[in-house]
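Feature request, filed as a ticket because there's no other form

It would be nice if the structure record came with a short human-readable summary line next to the tokens. Right now we just get the raw output. Example of a typical job, pasted below so the devs can see what we mean:
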Amino acid sequence: MRAVPTAALRVLVVNPGSSSLKLAVLGAGDAILVQQEVDSGAGVVDERALSGFLAGVTGGFDAAGVRVVHGGLRLRAPTLATDAVVAELDQISDLAPLHNPPAVAALRRLRASGSVPVVACFDTAFHAGMPEAAAVYAVPWRWTSEWGVRRYGFHGLSHAYATRQAAEQLGRAVADLQVVTCHLGAGASLAAVRGGVSVDTTMGFTPMDGLVMATRSGSVDPGLLLHVQRRHGVSAADAERLLDRESGLLGVSGVSADMRAVLEAAAGGSARAALAVDVYVHRLRALVAAMAASLDRVDALVFTGGVGENAAEIRSQGVPAWLRDVPVLVVHAREDLQIAHEVRTLLGGGASA
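Raw output as currently delivered:
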């Protein structure tokens, strides 16, 4: 790594999604020096596109940060990607089969490409310190103690960034704030954040839990799954696919997974689209209240993500009446800035927010 101030490090940010790869190099002041987004197959990383991007970065970069959706039980903070860390992530890829494998591939490619430090930044890390009462399921203890079944939570990079931005907008220290952060995109989750620390969240063991999403069901009665398996012959693989990709807004509306199209159809008289919006808002309002109940007070509600930022009527309807005197903030989602922040903090010897 070049001998430059930590704040001035040129950080390569690699964000492998389930079907895309987002790349950027951020310089001093988080200026975007170069960026690219490419489509990729589900659960894989386009290594040719990554190699081409790396070759075209004028001036190189000083460090790299890779978004990793799941860190499992042990990886609970931004971590230098050593051989042992990469091997461990490979072993737990089944916890996030569409997201972790491309992240692991990116980590390996970056480690092989040069001598700059490579940092794994985990979406689960922000929630790793949740109280046990919030994290533990009331299931047979062996599931918890031996199998690692617990509420992990996701979208941590987005929730962490939204929290920092809320503090900036309010002119207050993160340590003094208690907020409910609302990441509403294709995937959606809420977090109760006290003093910069997540104390509760809506996603659980997998990203399918909690809110209604674009194509994910959100929380359902586990007995429902047993019923459709026994009575209707739905296999575990089919149930996973249906709840993950054919439910949510798409499943109820029959129109689209895109909130904009569903709202338009509802305004045009589609009863199912209107019902989809009502179901989405009902769950949102209930879980905002649940997150507020995990805090001593609510200093702000913070909305981010495509729906959270752009659908004013969803923000308005999703706030319980008794919270409508609380400031409502909108923050543009920038996971890349949070990743760069965590890389610089780790390499500078500090603790990440």
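Something like this underneath would help us a lot:
Residues 209 and 345 are 31 Å apart (CA to CA).
The longest strand covers residues 32-39.
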